[in-house]
Specification:
The chain is an alpha+beta fold. 44% of the residues lie in helices and 24% in strands. The strands form 2 sheets. Strands 1, 2, 3, 4, 5 and 6 form a 6-stranded mixed β-sheet that branches. A 4-stranded antiparallel β-sheet has the order 8-9-7-10. The structure holds (R)-mevalonate (MEV). The site of (R)-mevalonate has 15 residues, from α5 and α6.
Amino acid sequence: MGRGSGFGKTILFGEHFVVHGVPGIASAVDSAADAHVKKAAKGINVTDERTGAKGYAEKKKLQQLESIERMLTAMNMDPQKTSMDIWLGGNLPGFSGLGASAASSVAIARAIAEEYELVLSDEQINDIAYEAEKAYAGNPSGIDNTAATFGGLIWFKKNLNKGSNEIEQLSIREPVEIVIGNTGIVANTKAMVAGVAQRKEQNPEEYAAIFRYAEELANKGRKALDEFDLKQVGNLMNESHQLLQQIEVSCNELDYLVELARKQGAFGAKMTGGGGGGCMLALTPGKDLQEKVALAIENEGFEVLRTKIGVRKV
Ligand code: MEV
């Protein structure tokens, strides 16, 4: 049996903008998807036992099968002639917005490689997972699979001209507590990404100004993380949420949880990932603040994940 893992991620700055070549910053969280793969007699059979994955797994089933077929093709294996049992688990909940799809693609690609005795570098796994991500995101930037493959805190800039993407590991003085709040709405990243592209085309001037500001926020965010100025990181996250509202990828539930987290003292809060549901992220340094914000969200009936950014290993 082959085994593999992929990190979950949260985007601190730049979701959606990264698709169009604006830099972004993502961090792996200290939770991962795990996969086991075993050659089987017939078909590709997926057993998804990720926590909180029920609605998620059902809604994403077709995209998941397409992603596995894409992955096999990228590994020079024929999806029609390959039969395997795939088990998915791990401590990364199947919430939309946490990079669950990319984490599972990386985990599955690693497990397939082990089961079929293929020697693949992390760069190759990342490329394979990028192909798989197309099933979920349509035109993905590559930030999710990069964070899922390499972990850590990463600076990511997509190369729009087919060359390699700019990927840099950033360092942070120490891991910082965050709270991820789940709206419970399973979002369709593909539709969200396509919607932004369409509105950008329809409103070129307005969007150009918003995109310039998103780039400025990513650069300022990088500096603030480097200086470990968490108040400033939080303020910039708040501004980032405003931009995401302007490009119409937030929703009432996300705005509500973001506001709630700020009222409880979070240094900053924003939606994270594709939006339209899915998750928000609150920066809550220290266990006490993390617990306060997490409980407030739970008391409103939403699921949370208490985790950290800047963790290098799960
Ligand atoms: C999803 O986690 C992030 C998006 O920017 C899509 C992508 O970058 O592929 C919305």
